[in-house]
């Protein structure tokens, strides 16, 4: 708890000295994704943020025999505002395939594209984030000292209000050692008897290191970091 308070005070003090959001920092995380059930399904992949010309590219990709996922967004930064430009999603579970392809027009405040076979053409009230890039906005607001956060995200076929709060701290065990993290809980939208948690590392620019989804207290889905490079530097965790 003492380290949690120390880190929070440092973040808050930094926020009082600047009104600008921290600059995005490139990173690459090697991941393991697991779906728990009668038969556990697991695969490995990467979560990566990198520059793409004057814009940014954020991508989660896994590839397994029975389950695979590719989710990515291209976005720009306008002052302290993250602006999604193009979002793509494709998942496969055995023979079932789902796709999304969206374009964000911020001059017209309009989202167009397709979700599976359904056409999307809707206007929105800014700011609006996509279904993976919201993680970067969450990261930025945590850097700015916020502990209760909410914003609009185009998740399925319409904007939804997503809300989060910091609920505690944990020394997270990773294959390469331990790392100090804050635990962030998604409070809305959330299903009945469901809980969603994100572990972020305040000493590593609040990069997400683990995601967990629970039903009735049981872990059902998990994504955890196997190794991490931040701004081109390999991170060594304490053993």
Automatic annotation (TrEMBL):
Keyword vocabulary terms for this entry: Signal
Name by which UniProt lists this protein: DUF3108 domain-containing protein
Organism: Saccharospirillum salsuginis
Source species taxonomy: Bacteria, Pseudomonadati, Pseudomonadota, Gammaproteobacteria, Oceanospirillales
Pfam family, any one: DUF3108
Range of residues in the leader sequence: 1-21
